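User: These chains co-purify. Model them together.
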Amino acid sequence: MPAVDIETAAAVAGDRGTGAPTLRRRPVAGASTPPGDRLFGWLTASAAYFVLILLLGIAVSMAYGGRLAFETFGWQFITGRDWDAVARKFGAFIPIYGTLVSSAIAMLIAIPTSLGIAIFLAEVAPRWLRGPIGIAVELLAAIPSIIYGMWGLFVFAPVMAKYVEPWLNDHLGPLPILGPLFTGPPIGIGMLTAGIILGIMTIPFIASVMRDVFQAVPPTLRESAFALGATPWEVVRKVTLPYTSSAVVGATFLGLGRALGETMAVTFVLGNAHDFSKSLLMPGNSIAAAIANEFTEADSDIYLSSLIALGFVLFVVTFIVLALAKLMLVRIGRNAGTKG
Amino acid sequence: MNPIVRNRQIVNGIVLVTATAATLFSLFWLVWILWTTVSQGAAAFAPSLFTKMTPPPGETGGLLNAFFGSAVMILLAVVIGTPIGVMAGTYLAEFSRGSRVAGVIRFINDILLSAPSIVIGLFVYELVVRQVGHFSGYAGGLALAIILLPVVVRTSDEALRLVPNQVREAALALGLPRWKVTTKVVYRAGSTAIITGILLAVARISGETAPLLFTALNNQYWTANLATPMANVPVVIFQYAMSPYDSWHALAWAGALVVTAFVLTLSIVVRLFFRQRTPR
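Assistant: Joint model of the two components:
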């Protein structure tokens, strides 16, 4: 909930352009700014610029720490499949692939579920139920990710291994194209389990933003549609979704940014394997999990540098995704300001 | 009934039932995870959790040093992050109205808010641990501060923007300089919301594991020396859960229960408190 509160606020409220009216004290001719004001203004400004410097610092230090790996391997660092600490040869294709695939599975689960929750809260739930359900969904985000990891390892993975994965093997395994994805030993640890857990974790982030932008739709628009005889679903599809489309996409990007960088939950259930496998039931790896698992074991400069370079790749990817999310959400802010 | 209308009603019904099912689906996971944490944690819960140190495998013990380390590092994060965060929020809300720079800073701050916490851990490792040469509680606190900072910036910015402008104008009309208007009047008006933001940020950093893995590391023993590696609850949970020992698993679950209870209670209490104070 804390994270979601902030996320939502960041995504919706702050960017609707509802700044308080401007207050500028123009100095009277001849009067100078009091020294206290100058000092205070300087202090607050430097704190604000510190935020910029911090992000820049993170980017630069990741690039600097990873320079040895980038220099040694070049593009091979991204495309190479060998991750061999003994031979000191590092290619990050497997973790990058794992990050993308597990996040994709997460999105397949989180996007429809979040949309469902938003529709439920907007059109189905009675007013008194909206608050409690909203809070309950947001509690999913308040649970620390390490708890997801433990639960995943001790409770969820065995369930997957015993019930879900054998079923997938039997029923989806023989299919022509999808088959290889679901063939493999039912051990419970692997890409599919990690992706599902990531999906559950991402639901609250996407759902709460969607709920808030749904609420930002001007009531006149919805009521007009209802007055024409539209069913609730038609109102959602023809009024709410078109009105909020860019924010809905932004919300999913926000969730994607979260899923890509999530560490602890997937570290437990991915299995830390550096072999490529098409099957979603096989152990894999992700950028964040590889860093978490191997960082303290890194015994050579190039190993350490490769892990930091992985961090740089993760940082750049999440930065782009989150920046896109922000831009999409700002757009709805402007729409709400002009149309609403 | 007209078949077209009936079809529309049917489609509508299917969608709304699916939406309800989606909500139940997400609540199902919440209940399952919380139930696991509570039942496993309660089974392993004992008063010695708060009186004994983390044990070697096979022996009994508690998590006292880890709780202490976590508390110290969270406190350090609040001490570092809060002043900078509130100041930055002040600049955004009070001194940069409508400027382009403020927009850029808000944008970057929001990205920092969602940035992967493991990357923040790597950053502090590069910045502090590698320079100093060893892991330390200071580094852990700093990493948590960097996660806390954007939350505080965002919430204090919004809290201060909600303070009515008449308040500022009234204070200025009395001849107060701007800095006194802000610190004595505007802060007071926005204090509840700012404190809420800080508490939410504390709730968020309490369960953070990834940034502590290579900053504070872990310590099997009691230490109050921030310059050395320090035990902390999330990393202890991680190591114990990944270990093959049942006694360590039990301790990990007990720790997980305490952390989850703390975080969820803080989140809910803050929300209720904040609700009461803000008229709608």
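Strands of chain A lie at 83-84, 89-90.
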